[in-house]
């Protein structure tokens, strides 16, 4: 669900003033969060297996303990990655572009990127827990609502109406 919402926002960035800069920055943010998401996805996959095995074996207390560990790992991972991004925000953009304007804009986007990374870390862990507990359908509805009913309209409001440009579109995600 979420991938298409990101693509929609990137396409919409082409309608903003200075579309080359705005789409470049959104593409960098999307690429960075996508690369990062492999970590929380792996944590979530592990959580799914562990929680489902413990619940299937009739060990709800052990499953609850696994949930705690996974949430702690998600929080710790978010802190580590966000700290890294904040410390290197002025050079992060050079991994993608030599254009000073793009690099400077990315440096300004890093705090928002850290919020996204932190949310992804928890979402990855919690979605694995939900899958392990047999709540896949609920997770799908939450994702659908969060990205399409709330995220895209909020991004449009912030990006276009409040003129926050790429920052506003990204805040909607």
From TrEMBL:
Record InterPro entries: MATE_fam (IPR002528)
GO CC annotations, alphabetized: membrane
PANTHER family assigned: MULTIDRUG RESISTANCE PROTEIN
GO MF term (any one): xenobiotic transmembrane transporter activity
Organism: Pisum sativum
Descriptive protein name: Uncharacterized protein
TM regions (residue ranges): 65-88, 109-129, 141-162
Keywords noted in UniProt: Membrane, Signal, Transmembrane, Transmembrane helix
Signal peptide: 1-17
A Pfam family that the UniProt record links to this protein: MatE
Domain of life: Eukaryota
Family stated for the protein in its record: Belongs to the multi antimicrobial extrusion (MATE) (TC 2.A.66.1) family.
